[in-house]
Amino acid sequence: MNYRRLPNGLEVSELGVGVWSLVTDEWGADTSIAEDIIKEALNLGINFFDTADVYGRGRGEEILHRSLGPKISNVVILTKIGLDFYGCGGVKPNFNVDYLRVALSRSLERLGVGYVDILMLHNPVMNVIKSRDVFEFLREVKRSGEAKMVGVALGPTLGWGEEGKAAVYMGYEALEHIFNAIEQLPGLELLKFDGVAQFIRVPHASDVLDEERWPLKQSPSLHRSLKSYSWIQRALAESKGLEDIANRAGLKLYELALKYVLAYENVSSVLPNITSRHDLQRFVNAVEKPPLDKSAVEEVLSYWKSHLLDLNYESINETDRFKRQE
């Protein structure tokens, strides 16, 4: 396993494990084997685990504590707060500083630690990102030693580029966002920022770029249902060109998708949706292959510009309905 150094000196594995896809059924996982997969990931050299308090309503953090035990101090944990699931029946954004303080305390308790390596706000909108009160709270958390880095997880959809830039200008040290060979904007713009840890999720574009998941089923219980089935079908058709590029590079499409993301030096770690031991092993094998050569990277970029931009912009526009809730 290869590792990359964060701006604060921490080293993280190029492949991270996102606990979300292990403790919910939104990606079709067998949630009963989550602990086994986390233990196996550690054995395979993975030291970066991404979670949030809301994942499984606390279960994601609890499973990391149980799976890693005392070894949790030897890995890098990223967790997120700001989506309130306590006692309200559903989930709602809550970035009130008093709530954030309680949420952090409960996350640390579930993880069984005194601090987290990276603490992020979970899907904040622009006014939250620019809030001095929220930012000062997170600076206080750093000063107290309860977090080593603070950042922003952009989402749940793609089009939060301006929010990502605002977070960097505010002084946040880390971003988590969507970036893949189909949905390259706004990720390409965010990846221009040096000195910011950047964690990439959805590298397979809602499984469109993972041929082992084909044919893709549409179900309201799956997270990809946030996208129109028309988008999925058109993206699948256009992905054949990327599959040709993968074949010329001696890779499978899902391997090309991961290696393309990691071709960008400002990417700290990539977080594919792992739902089984088989996924874990094949993704480890993929990232351990030699880096994608420059000509293949340029070929992917060229194909994106000529065939995939409309799909990318359509994904960005999906965000409008969330921004109207600000």
TrEMBL record:
Classification via InterPro entries: AKR2_Oxidoreductase (IPR053135), NAD(P)_OxRdtase_dom_sf (IPR036812), NADP_OxRdtase_dom (IPR023210)
A Pfam cross-reference name: Aldo_ket_red
Boundaries of every NADP-dependent oxidoreductase domain copy: 14-300
Organism domain of life: Archaea
CDD domains with a match to the protein in the record: AKR_AKR11C1
Protein's name in the database: Oxidoreductase
Species of provenance: Acidilobus saccharovorans (strain DSM 16705 / JCM 18335 / VKM B-2471 / 345-15)
